[in-house]
Amino acid sequence: MKLTAMAPQCGVEISGVALATCSDAEMEDIRNAIYEHGVAVFRDQTFSKEDHIKFGRRWGGIDINNYFPLTKDYAEIAIVKKEPDQVVNIGGAWHTDHSYDQIPAMGSVLVARELPPTGGDTMWAHMGAAYDALSDDLKTRIEGLEAFHTADHVYKADGIYAQTDQGATLRGQDLETGAVHPVVIRHPHTGRKLLYVNRAFTINFVGQTPEESRPLLEELFDAALTDDNQCRLQWKPGTVAIWDNRTSWHNAINDYAGHYREMHRITLSGEALAA
Ligand code: SIN
Hints:
This protein has a domain of 187 residues: 4-Layer Sandwich (Double-stranded beta-helix). Helix content is 20%, strand content 26%. The strands form four sheets. Strands 1, 2, 3, 4, 5, 6, 14 and 16 form an eight-stranded mixed sheet that branches. Strands 13-7-15 form a three-stranded antiparallel sheet. The chain is globular. The site of succinic acid has 10 residues, from strand 6, strand 15 and strand 16.
């Protein structure tokens, strides 16, 4: 296997491995690379829906997505798609998946199934590098803080997506979510300190109202994106990306109006987070 950095502090492209048939030793190297770099990209993969599920199970568990449409044959595979006549895409702003769950999903395995002729890239940002780059003052101000996360304002019947042309295909509009996590977590495997708040789902610090929390949250959201902690993936047929939700944020770029894009996503179960 050959590992090539995608950007100074985020993302790695891994070549010389077939995900569908990789050995346990290769799997271990892939896991460690994703924990370290936040996201790993694999090109030219032959990866059927069955391979996708088999590979996902090798990580531990698969979380069934509560909101996105699921493939007809397999509930484990969620469909992230945008029709040519739709305006809004799924995941088109910086976020980390499932921070609103008590035990947030570890990450995702995303497979390109149908791509627009140009555009539709995905970006990631490394939250370990983001934490390291915070000023000492900001690090002191967030020391020991916990924050509340929810997806209710995004996915509920009166939420953000319901007001858009993605609303009709989303499920789970009656679900309620909410979880408290430390603002700075330690990666469960590497022990690295990671900034764990995101603009999509983090609402307030524990002990403060959303209004009181907003200025510091905004400061953190802005500081979390630096020039060298982001990477950008241009998808091609056969590309698979696997990311770690604790280590990274991601953002699906919505710049392919008039074209269809369909991705298949498996969400990998995670573990409780701690400071
Ligand atoms: C997402 O999982 O947020 C969507 C990623 C993508 O479609 O590129």
